[in-house]
Write a structure and sequence with these properties.
It is built from eight helices and 17 strands. The chain has 337 residues and is of the alpha+beta class. Helix 5 links the parallel strand 11 and strand 12.
Length: 337
């Protein structure tokens, strides 16, 4: 089998697009290299003393895990000296991270959730890193939050890495979605699946059912119909999965279809939802749409949302197109069910 490494894939993709954009290629390669280091740290577990709480809270007021802090530092250190970035933003940092003045600045902005699925770290369940790349409107000026306030449609690249039985990097540059597996001997990400495609229909849904009583009526109706199965209005049975690591749940959907939902509920309505727009919902929506799926808030296309804050939260419904459209239709109809 011809083994195409990430570097070769990116160079060939540039040639095909006739666009020599070394900065973007370098940026993706550096993010991938940082994810390799994170994969090594996670793989050590207790032996590396990386499990457990860090003893600090992040900007969202959540207790940080040691690996949240370690992963954040690995991504910052790897990306700040390369000359391809104007700045970074992370789930673990309240303010944007400006590139130190002793390093050259570039034209891209990198946003990331350094370790997604933190609640699963200490129980050895798959976690991940999610990233989004934007262009900085004016890389000569000082970095501000508003430089990042760009719709998801402005993303030039997005990806996630799943640290599971194997470490996988899933990437889009706006020309399909491709999956690379980390070859630990080679120390490289190798292309293992091209042009991932999400089937339009599915019989599998993912949602935290323990929140059911807090959901809005349209979501209650949609999930009740799924659970009612053959005996219900859908006339067929549906299966449920919930890993509680968005990267793992979304990767399953990119592999065999499905619908992932973290809807608005009465617990999170004040903050607008649970998941973050800029470094969770937007990159995942870009990837899912590039794989033929759909991604909405239940009411609006996620990629069309005008961001209002770096750590803004939104409801998320994504995956197999026909199911996402049904959920959205129920919300737009304001269905009572
Ligand atoms: P972080 O771990 O990055 O904060 O992400 C949030 C998250 O863990 C998602 O990965 C996951 O889909 C969701 O929260 C799980 O929520 P819950 O704990 O309600 O099941």
């Amino acid at each position: 089998m011809r083994r195409i490494t990430l570097t070769r894939f990116l160079i060939e993709a540039q040639r095909q697009q006739g666009a020599q954009n070394n900065d973007l290629r370098l940026l993706i390669e550096v993010v991938a290299r940082a994810c390799k280091a994170i994969s090594v740290a996670i793989g050590k577990g207790s032996l590396g003393g990386v499990l457990g709480e860090a003893g600090s809270d992040n900007v969202q007021g959540e207790a940080q895990k040691k690996l949240d802090v370690i992963s954040n530092e690995i991504l910052l250190e790897a990306n700040e000296w390369g000359g391809h970035l104007a700045g970074m933003a992370s789930e673990e940092m309240e303010l944007p991270h400006a590139i130190p003045s002793h390093y050259p600045r570039g034209e891209y902005l990198l946003l990331f959730d350094p370790l997604d699925g933190s609640s699963n770290i200490d129980v050895n369940i798959s976690v991940g890193t999610i990233f989004s790349v934007l262009k900085c409107a004016d890389s000569s000026c000082d970095l501000h939050d508003h430089d990042f306030m760009q719709k998801g449609t402005r993303q030039v690249a997005a990806g996630y890495t799943v640290y599971g039985p194997s470490t996988l990097l899933v990437l889009t540059l706006g020309n399909g979605v491709h999956c690379f597996t980390l070859d630990r001997e080679l120390g490289s990400f190798v292309l293992t699946r091209e042009n991932l495609s999400i089937p339009a229909d599915t019989r599998e849904f993912a949602i935290n059912m323990s929140n059911q009583r807090f959901w809005e009526k349209p979501m209650q109706r949609y999930v009740n119909e799924l659970v009612a199965g053959k005996e219900g209005p859908r006339g067929t049975d549906f299966n449920m999965r919930w890993v509680a690591s968005m990267v793992a749940d979304v990767h399953r959907i990119l592999t065999r279809g499905g619908i992932f939902m973290y809807p608005l509920d009465s617990k999170t309505v004040a903050q607008g939802g649970k998941l973050r727009l800029m470094y969770e919902a937007n990159p995942m929506a870009f990837i899912v749409e590039q794989a033929g799926g759909a991604a909405t808030t239940g009411r609006e296309r996620i990629l069309d949302l005008e961001p209002t804050g770096l750590h803004q939260r939104v409801p998320v419904v994504l995956g197999s197109k026909n199911e996402v459209e049904r959920v959205t239709r129920y919300h737009q109809e304001g269905s009572e069910g």
